[in-house]
Automatic annotation (TrEMBL):
Subunit structure: The cytochrome bc1 complex is composed of a cytochrome b (QcrB), the Rieske iron-sulfur protein (QcrA) and a diheme cytochrome c (QcrC) subunit.
Cytochrome c domain ranges (all copies): 55-134, 149-227
Enzyme class: translocase
The EC number(s) this enzyme carries: 7.1.1.8
UniProt topology in membrane: Multi-pass membrane protein
Broad class of where this protein is predominantly found: membrane
UniProt KW keywords: Cell membrane, Electron transport, Heme, Iron, Membrane, Metal-binding, Repeat, Respiratory chain, Translocase, Transmembrane, Transmembrane helix, Transport
Catalytic activity: a quinol + 2 Fe(III)-[cytochrome c](out) = a quinone + 2 Fe(II)-[cytochrome c](out) + 2 H(+)(out)
Full protein name: Cytochrome bc1 complex cytochrome c subunit
Compartment(s): Cell membrane
Highest taxon, organism lineage: Bacteria
C-alpha cells in the first residue's frame, strides 16, 4: 500500500508543469499577440496613408485636366503655349497656383499675382499630382517659415542676392521689356521661400547649394522685420533710396525756391 502511494505521488510530481514554464508561455503569448497587433496596425496605417495620397493625386489630376492641360498638355509635358511641368516639384505648383499667377489670365511679359481660384486643399492636390510625375523641389518645412532667424544675416544675404531687383527694402523694381520684380511686403513666408527655391518668372533659382534652408529662413526673417518696423525717417519716398530723395530735392526743393523768387520779384515790381 505504501509503495503504491509513493508511486502515485511520483507520477504526479513528474507530470506537474513548472511555474517558470507557465510564466514563459504567458510572456510568449503576449509578445506574439502584441507583435501581430503592431504589424497589423502599421500595415493598416500605411495602406490608409497610401490610399489618401493616391486620392489626392487623382483629385489633382482631374483639376489639372480641367484648368491647366490647355497650355501644359494632358500629360503636363508642355505645349507651344506652356512649358513642361515634369520635374518642377510641388513647391513650384504651390507658388504659382497659390499666388493666383496660374492659371494665367492673359498673355503678357510675366504672370501677375491675383486672388487664387482654388482652395488650399485643391492646390495641394495639384501639387501632389505634378510631384508624382517627376522629382522636384518639395514644399518647405514649417520650421524655416517662422521668421525667427538671424535678421542681420538675412539682410546681408538679401542685399547680395536680391536687392538689385527687389530693392534693398523689398519694395520691388522695374526690369526690362515690361517685366518687374514684385514688392515683397505682405507676401507669405512660404511663398517667399518657394520663390527662392524654384525661381519663378525672371527670378534665378537659389537652390539649397546656393542659399541653404537656414539662410533662406534668415532672409525671410529680415523681410518680416521690415514689415513690422517701418522707416524711422518719415516719408519713405517709395523706398527707392538716395536717387529718389535727390530727385525730390531737385524737383520740389529747387522748384519751390524758384517759385518763391519769382513771387518776390513780381511783388516788388
Amino acid at each position: 500500500m505504501f509503495s503504491k502511494k509513493n508511486s502515485t505521488k511520483s507520477k504526479r510530481a513528474v507530470g506537474r508543469r513548472s511555474p517558470v514554464a507557465t510564466v514563459s508561455l504567458i510572456l510568449v503569448g503576449l509578445l506574439t499577440t502584441g507583435g501581430a497587433y503592431a504589424l497589423f496596425t502599421s500595415t493598416a496605417t500605411a495602406d490608409t496613408s497610401s490610399t489618401t495620397s493616391q486620392a489626392s493625386v487623382n483629385e489633382g489630376k482631374k483639376l489639372f485636366a480641367a484648368n491647366c492641360a490647355t497650355c501644359h498638355g494632358m500629360a503636363a509635358s508642355g505645349t507651344t503655349a506652356g512649358p513642361s511641368l515634369i520635374g518642377v516639384g510641388a513647391a513650384a505648383v504651390d507658388f504659382q497656383v497659390g499666388t493666383g499667377r496660374m492659371p494665367l489670365a492673359a498673355d503678357g511679359p510675366q504672370a501677375l499675382e491675383k486672388p487664387t481660384q482654388f482652395s488650399n486643399s485643391q492646390v495641394q492636390a495639384m501639387a501632389a499630382y505634378v510631384s508624382s510625375l517627376g522629382t522636384g523641389p518639395s514644399e518647405p518645412a514649417s520650421k524655416y517659415l517662422t521668421a525667427t532667424g538671424n535678421a542681420a544675416k538675412g539682410a546681408e544675404l538679401f542685399r547680395i542676392n536680391c536687392a538689385m531687383c527687389h530693392n534693398v527694402a523689398g519694395a520691388g523694381g522695374a526690369l526690362t521689356e515690361g517685366k518687374f520684380a514684385p514688392p515683397l511686403k505682405g507676401v507669405s513666408a512660404k511663398h517667399i521661400y518657394e520663390a527662392m527655391l524654384t525661381g519663378p518668372q525672371n527670378m534665378p533659382v537659389f537652390n539649397d547649394l546656393n542659399i541653404t534652408p537656414q539662410d533662406k529662413a534668415d532672409i525671410i526673417t529680415y523681410l518680416k522685420y521690415l514689415e513690422k518696423n517701418p522707416s524711422p525717417g518719415g516719408f519713405e519716398l517709395g523706398n527707392l533710396g538716395p536717387v529718389s530723395e535727390g530727385l525730390f530735392i531737385w524737383i520740389f526743393g529747387l522748384g519751390a525756391v524758384v517759385a518763391i523768387t519769382v513771387w518776390l520779384t513780381a511783388k516788388s515790381n
